[in-house]
Every structure is written in C-alpha cells, then in structure tokens.
Design goal:
The complex is a heterodimer.
Chain A (H helix, E strand, L loop, with lengths): L2 E6 L7 E7 L2 E8 L2 E6 L14 E9 L5 E14 L6 E3 L18 E4 L2 E5 L5
Antiparallel strand pairs in A: 1-9, 2-3, 3-4, 5-6, 6-7, 8-9
Chain B lengths: L10 E2 L9 H4 L1 H6 L10 E6 L6 H5 L5 H10 L36 H4 L2 H13 L3 E5 L12 H19 L6 E6 L5 H11 L5 E7 L12 H10 L3 E4 L15 H22 L2 H4 L5 E4 L5 H15 L11 H5 L3 E3 L8 H10 L2 H4 E2 L13 H4 L6 H16 L10 H12 L1
Parallel strand pairs in B: 2-3, 3-4, 4-5, 5-6, 6-7, 7-8, 8-9
Helix pairs in contact in B: 7-8, 8-9, 10-12
Classes of the chains: A mainly beta, B alpha/beta.
The complex binds FE2/S2 (inorganic) cluster (FES).
Chain lengths: ~120, ~425
C-alpha cells in the first residue's frame, strides 16, 4: 500500500477538501484545522460521488427541557459532507451517517509528513 | 512512498454543482452500467424536463394570442409565467445539497451543430446511465391540474405537446414522450389524443395526478375509449402539492413529499378500481408512475378487505381489487429499499417480474440509477432484465433493439475527456 503525495500542506485550504484519483480509486481528503480525513469517493447508498458534495454543518433541532422546539440550528462542531446524488450526509471526522452509524464511508489512511499530505491506497487490480 | 512527478499531477475532481456536466455527475452510473451491458434493452420510463430553461420556447407556441401575450409579457430570466408552482417546491434541492435538482446550468454545444440544448443534455444522461430509451415528462407542469384557469392548463398542454413533438422527439430516437392530457378540459384531451397521439416518439398519454378530478367521471368515457383504441398506455404521474388542505398541516417538505405523491395515486387508483374501469376498458393499459411501490400492497389489502363486505358499492367488479391491480404497470422510482424483506414481498405482490418498469426520475433529487434494480439481491437475472427494459417494451410497444453504445465505449470516452 504505497503512500501517495496529494498536496503540499501549505497549499491545502483550511478548512478544505480535495478529491483526487489515485491508482484508479477516487479519494476525498478533508482538512478541518490540523486534522485530515480521507474516504473513498463512493457513497454507501448507491455509490454516488459523495466526496464531491457540499460541505455543511450538521443540522440539529434545538429542543428545550420542557420539550419545546426552537427550530433547527446548525451544529457548531460537526461538519458533514453531503452526497450530491441524494443528500445522505456524513460526519467528516467519523465518516458516519448521523442517523445510522452502520452507514459509513470507507476510510482511507491519510497523514502529514515533512510538509506534505499523503494517502495510502491499494491500487485497483 | 510515491511522490507525484512534477509533470504528472493527480487528476482532481471538482465539487459537483448545478453547473456540472451531466456526464461528470453520473460518472459512477456509467461505471455501474458495465453490470447490465449485456441486457437486451434498458428503458427509463420516467425522466424529467426541467422546463425553466426552455419556458420561453414553450410559451411562444401558445395558440391563444391573449394567453401568449400575457405569458410573454411576464417573462423574465428564471420566471415561468402561468405556472402555479408553490414557493415551497424550491426546497426540492434541499438548500442546494442536491444540485441537479436546480439545473440544468451546464454548458452545451452550439445547437446548430449538436442539436437542441435539451436533446444534448438527455443524450448525456442516456449515455451515462446506459439507456436505450428515456421517457420524458415535464416538471413544473405537473401542478397545472390545480390551476384555477382551465385554459391555462389546456393552452400549455398543447404548447408543450407541440414543443415536444416538433423540436425534441424528431432529433433522437432514444427520446420518447407522452401527451400531456389537460384533464380539466375533457374535450381538449380528446383533441390532443387525435392530433398528437400518433406522432413520432409519442408512446402514450399522461394524466398528471395532482388534481381534484374524479377519474371515473362519465365525461372521460370517450377519452378512455379513444386511448384504448390507440393501444398506447394511460399513465398516471404523481406529484407533490403543499397547498392541499390536508398537506398544509405538514411543516417540512419531506413530510409533504412522502405523502402527497402517494396520496393522489391512492385516490385515483381507488376510483379506477371501485368504479370497475378495468372491466369497462379491458384493453386499456394503465401505469402508475413516481409513487414508489410501498403504497400498492397497502391499497390491495385495504380494498380487498372492504370490497368483500360492501360488494353492492362496487358491483362492476368481477374479481378482487388486488387482482386488477396486479395486472397494471408500475414504475420503480423512488424505490423504497431500506427494508429489503418488505420490498421483496411488495415486488411479489405486484408481479414485478412482468409489471414493474425501471424509472430514474432524473434529474430530480430522489432519482434512482439502474443500479437501484441491479443491486437487489432477491431478483433473478430474468426479473432484472424485464424490469430494466423488457416490461416497458411490452407496455409501450418499443422495439427490443439495442440503441446504446457498449458500456466500455462510454467509459473510454469519459476517460479520454478526463485526461
Ligand atoms: S448515492 Fe449518495 S446519497 Fe445516494
């Protein structure tokens, strides 16, 4: 599983995302602060190009102690990537769907070394 | 460790937006098409024109000069004069999360060389999904049945039929369509059947189901006879409507959408069955489009249960409602697949192997690629072939003749374009 350099660290936007094709596999690399995450660009729903979708905070419902809802608000901490085919959302940090953690993206190892960002992929047979 | 050679950077894929090329959007569907490349025929029985980009061309074809002047006088970029679309329908793209719903904004070639812009876009879709035929329906016009001005529905129906049969269908054999029946004006429906029913590429007739009109009413008797004589199917296309009094209680688009498509088809199917229309028009082929499938076994069970007790209210029936329903055609999208056990049972109940027809609903937000069918673990290869094309060929009288290029050819073209 060779490491492939995808970008200079300084050239990677923060927050940011790059989707690249490495050895026949499309990989989405996401940056949130100093953290990097990478996933295969294939949605677990119907294989749509999930990593090429919009990046948005998780929508939550603001519910008071007595059950009153104050409506919807965006999360201050969780960022999602939204599959552009049908809208499934995935937590960029965990790769999981907010409603069902069994529905998740396939993680690809990613690391920062000597000022560059690398991913490890197994080339397609 | 591999470093990227300076002269060979990795291929980067951009964010998908409403302006993305259909071929980029559906690149993965093109890869999936390899799995059904040897199937005899792939037909998508429900895809959509997003009229917004072409509305100027359609309203120019309005016969009535007062209506035409009214529409043209109201025409602005992005406007659709005479269309009674509710504001909430803008939520379809989920605030831009699903960009194809907001298109088409992609670039196309010079129409003088490459054909009508819409035809170019459909060609990209059929090529990416690996289709032989795609059946085109309108989008915003699905609401016209609720327009209080009767001549707006009939005027636009005629203008749309002209636009479709004069500008679009002659350009490509793979694009086929249905005559929009302005159901609020029965006489006008009959005229359109006579005038457009036999034009090239017209394979049936559609009633946009969002309306409050009893489909069994005697005023439609002659229309149904005429359609029956053509041998082409009558297709009920469901749709959303947020202004219906019951649905105005629902505070989220998802709630209205989940219920309203099914709601209109439930009502029309119930009237169709209880008034014994299958006995009165035994050769008329009926298809139910864009409500998914989960509603069908519910209604079968419910009507069978009640009709056994209240036969005197449905005396025209010679068999149970479910038996008639099992002989009708259904389109697959949006295929409710979360519970596969339930879906398998549903498919069994509707005789999916002979009655179900694949539909994509592209470019709408809840579209299904053909892989929504090919990836079902419980279907036999024969059932998949039938659902993906052969059932539609039978229903719509389409020749079983391959029109699509080989999937490998499409992929090679895409690879070349990407590099
Ligand atoms: S393929 Fe990603 S949401 Fe459907």
């Amino acid at each position: 599983m060779p490491d492939v350099r995808v970008s200079e660290l300084a050239a990677f936007e923060n927050p940011g995302r790059k989707v690249v094709e490495v050895a026949g596999i499309e990989v989405g690399i996401f940056r949130l602060g100093d953290e990097f995450f990478a996933y295969e660009n294939k949605c677990p729903h119907l294989e749509g190009p999930v990593c090429q979708g919009k990046i948005l905070p998780l929508a939550t419902e603001d519910i008071q102690r007595d059950g009153t809802s104050n409506g919807r608000v965006f999360s201050k901490t969780q960022m999602n990537v939204v599959c552009p085919w049908h809208g499934f959302e995935f937590d960029i940090r965990t790769g999981m769907h907010p409603m069902d953690s069994r529905v998740r993206l396939r993680r690809i190892p990613v690391k920062v070394l000597d000022g560059a960002v690398y991913v490890s992929v197994t080339p397609k047979a | 460790m591999l470093d990227i050679p300076a002269n060979k950077p990795l291929r980067e894929l951009p964010e998908i937006t409403a302006a993305s090329d259909t071929r980029d959007y559906l690149a993965q569907a093109a890869r999936q098409a390899v799995a059904y490349d040897d199937y005899e025929l792939i037909v998508d029985v429900d895809a959509h024109l997003q009229e917004g980009g072409f509305w100027g061309e359609i309203i120019e074809l309005l016969d009535n000069d007062v209506l035409r002047q009214t529409a043209m006088g109201m025409m602005r970029p992005g406007a659709m004069p005479l269309i009674n679309m509710q504001a909430g329908m803008n939520f379809q793209s989920m605030s831009g999360r699903i960009p194809h719903q907001s298109g088409p904004l992609e670039k196309t070639e010079d129409p003088a060389k490459a054909g009508h812009r819409f035809v170019q876009i459909v060609r990209r879709t059929v090529e990416s999904m690996g289709l032989d035929y795609q059946v085109i329906f309108p989008t915003s016009m699905l609401h016209l049945g609720m327009n209080p001005v009767e001549e707006i529905e009939s005027g636009l129906a005629r203008a749309y039929c002209r636009w479709l049969t004069e500008k679009i269908l002659p350009e490509d054999d793979r694009i086929v369509g249905l005559i929009y029946l302005p159901f609020n004006s029965p006489l006008e429906c009959e005229k359109l059947v006579q005038e457009f029913g036999m034009k090239k590429g017209v394979i049936g007739f559609t009633i946009c189901a969002v309306r409050h009109k009893p489909v069994h009413h005697r005023q439609y008797a002659r229309l149904y006879s005429m359609i029956q004589e053509t041998g082409k199917p009558l297709v009920f296309h469901a749709g959303p409507h947020w202004d219906d009094p019951s649905f105005s209680q629902l505070n989220r688009f998802i709630s209205m959408h989940a219920l309203s498509f099914v709601h209109y088809n439930l009502i029309h199917m119930t009237n169709w069955i209880i008034n014994a229309m299958p006995e009165r028009y035994p050769r008329l082929k009926i298809a139910w489009v864009e409500s998914g499938l989960a509603w069908v076994p519910y209604l079968m069970q419910r009507l069978d249960h009640e009709v056994m007790m209240r036969q005197s209210e449905a005396p025209g029936l010679k068999r149970l409602p479910s038996e008639y329903m099992r002989e009708m055609y259904y389109s697959s999208q949006p295929l409710e697949r979360n519970d596969l056990e339930l879906l398998e049972m549903t498919m069994k109940k509707i005789n999916a192997e002979t009655q179900l027809m694949f539909s994509s609903d592209w470019p709408h937000w809840d579209f299904d690629p053909p892989s929504a069918i090919t990836s079902l673990p419980f279907l036999s290869d024969k059932a998949k072939r039938n659902i993906l094309g052969l059932n539609a060929a039978r229903a719509f009288g389409l020749p079983v003749k391959r029109l699509r290029p080989r999937a490998a050819e499409v992929l090679a073209r895409q690879r070349q374009a990407a590099s």
